[in-house]
Amino acid sequence: LVRYVFRRLLGAVFVVWVISVVTFSLFALANIVSGSSPAYLYVGKTSTPAQVAAVEESLGLNKPYVVQYWEYIKAIFVGRPLTDGVNGDVYCNAPCFGYSFQLKTSVWELIQDRFGATLSLAVGAAILWLIVGLAIGIVSALKRGSFLDRFGMIFALAGVSLPVYFTGLLLLYAFSFGPEAIRWFPDTTFVPLSQGIGPWARALTLAWISLAFLYAALYARFTRTNLLETMGEDYIRTATAKGLPRRTVVGKHALRAALTPLITIFGLDLAGLLGGAILTEKTFTIPGLGALAVDAIGKQDLPVIMGVTIVGAIFIVIANVIVDVLYAYVDPRVAYS
Amino acid sequence: MNNRRGLVGALALGAAGTLLLAACGSSSSSSSTTTPSGSESPAASASETTNASPSQVATAYDAAQTSIVNPSDATGGTLKLAASADCDSWDPQRTYYAWCWDMQRLTTRTMTAFKSVPGPEGASVVPDLAEGPGQPNADKTEWTYKLKPGIKFSDGTAVTSKDFKYALERLFATDVINGGPSSYYLCLLATCGADGSPDYKGPYKDPTGDLKSVTTPDDNTLVMKLVKPFGGVDFLMSQPITTPIQKAKDTKGEYGKKPLATGPFMISEYSAGKSVTFVRNPNWDQATDDVRKPKVDKVTLAIIEDTAVSDAKVLSGEIDLQADGGLQPEAKTKVFTDEKLKANADNPVDGFIRYFAVMQTVAPLTNKACREAVFLALNKAELLQIRGGKLGGAIANTMTPPNIPGHDPAFNPYPSGADNTGDLEAAKAKLTECGQPNGFSVNMTYVNQGLGGKTFASVQGALKRVGITVNSLPGDGASYYSSWIGSPKNIVDKKIGIAVAGWGADFPTPFGFWNSIANGKLILPEGNSNYPSINDPAVNSALDAVSAESDATKLQPLGATLDKAVMETATYLPFLFGRSFWYRQPRLTNVYLNAGVGNYYDYVQIGTSDGK
Lengths: 337, 612
Hints:
Number of strands of chain A: 2
Distance between the termini of chain A: 9 Å
Oligomer: heterodimer
Structural class of chain A: mainly alpha
Radius of gyration of chain A: 25 Å
Shape of chain A: globular
Number of helices of chain B: 19
Structural class of chain B: alpha+beta
Strand content of chain B: 15-25%
Helix content of chain B: 25-40%
Number of helices of chain A: 13
Order of helices and strands of chain A: HHHHEEHHHHHHHHH
Largest interface: A-B, 60 and 66 residues
Shape of chain B: globular
């Protein structure tokens, strides 16, 4: 097992490295294509060439790209002087992902600041979609062809068809800005959990519902299909024939086999969201990593784009490793080889 | 100077050099043009009228343009603001967005400040930290300010003239302290080389050096010796960039995260790009401050990027005001058509001119008559409709906005017909004159979002009527003003003949409006604002004249001369004086639009009627 985990981790590091190279190449390419120094994005447009050159020097933007990349990667592990390269007394501690041209703050500080909101959104929505999605999927499979099954599948169809920004805005205009009688969530401005679970949950409820609607629909369909398939297996028929109660057959034998693949999907879905649920964050003005990335793209804030991309990639790669290890643990048929 | 959304969002990123200081309530109000200008006269006259009571009303449509709406002495509560993006910086020396300069009035004080009154008078400056207006010598090369006693930073340290000197020195550390309007100060306080670099490098690179042009004979006196005569120093000293900075507390590039305050509020919490909370500064003393009369205990600013959501939140009462721009078209229509909501709305001129830069560096527009043909064929009536009709602005026939001395509403050097749809016969005659009787082909650039596409389509359709083919060449919003049209080389390389742009004055004088966009000595290789690259002797000479003048009565004719000189080059083609559309929450008290702070609401004065 240790060797397996080590090998997977090594692979994960390689993937993150490749992503960092690709991301940095885009950074370099953007500058080459535009023919303009990124220092202009930092210094403001009313500066003279000499002032721009001074900023290029202090941020190391005048060095060859290979050197810039090396310094960027090195800084993630050991930090680097920041902003004021002249005196070096402003230091970007490791992990240093650079300095935002627009927000004039270290990228790691921004990521830390925004991660709480993204985590709140992702975890809350994940709990909701797991409960709702699995429940609908199981009921649909067990009551195949019934009204409940049809209703569940219509729900699933609606969930996968309607984009988050549509359902999100619908919920906002109904329950946040709508008529007084149903204005149940008048203030959806994000508040951190540290300010109390009540205000935190109230601010996020509509976003959770909106995001969970999409995923719950997917999970409902997935659960239904897998469970129906499993219920048709010989060992299920055997278990039923042996006279085991239906609850045991379904709960102990069928569900375990049917839901095991969900671990992979759930791990990757959650990890993807931890890198930023862009549409939901934008729709509900949740100051998370996704909103940070979109804003950075709009303003060509390249260090932030790179930082969020790499951190998002790290989440997915780590989740991948965890899922692989867990999957092999849950399903003995999968060997650590 | 930058506003937020007004110029298709992208202008907010790129149009550096623009604090809009629209002084008038209407573009047709010529009387407003005589009010703001100069430094000595307005400051002196404003001092005399500081105690005059502006009109006060309950609430009505457009009332906040000329009156204080819901006047009240009630204190307490929280003013809840929202903005679509964070300020470029909370370091008072590194911000250039108009609304951020307005927000700076919460936390920073300067030697002079814009007067806290509604209407055009708000564009005049009055003493703030100074005992009186700046005292110039005869040729306006030396200015002296006397600091009021008893002024403190938010950490309790006394403010001295040395803190002002240090702030001015700090501007020269341009590798760290950048982004603000420092270009006005650097070559005025130090000798600059041919590349525009001053000989003093600032306190970080030259810690033992000294900005010799600024002296402090005692703790209350600041003397500035300028490289050349300049009449608008009181306006310069009203900008947040000149607020005192304590050397011992200067954290350089990090200063914007928690700057010391001298104003009635200070930043208690700041999360970049997310939110800002301001609480009362315990070391601010109302007795020393004639400009601000704060009422609330706290001000919060939430960054809400989606403007539709932001509009909905302000209309539902979740937030009080949008700090950085007015309502978007859908919400605007809803408010305008609902009498009850409309009573809490204002539709002021925003002080921005929307125009086309017609490049004299790209053939065949190198020929003036060809450029004039473009001017004359333009369909300004259609462009006004694209911008939202009368709620979106008024047709402009000359560049100088109504709030700037020199604006002449009757001046229309390139008339576009009686109905403003274009004078096609005159345009065709100009085409013949320039040797292109059948028209020509030209590239036009615009920001590839917002109204850019519609604007292009209108110009394309209008010019096609006289045989001019306009090709689309959109630019990206983030780099549009810096390296796309801000690069003279790129303009020539890409053969950009026409570029959509916008501009507002840094401060309401002809120099504050024109210097960045018309000064032939300020044509930069990138980040250039003089997009057509005009370097015209008559324009340069007129600029020198307005630069040295501070007499308001003389600035009007000098500004008019400058405006005519620029229009004579046929490179700046104006089409619209913009308007914004604001909604103010009914619970707010002491609300008015201040021309001095860009016709934004004067946030520092606002209170709440419910104390919440």
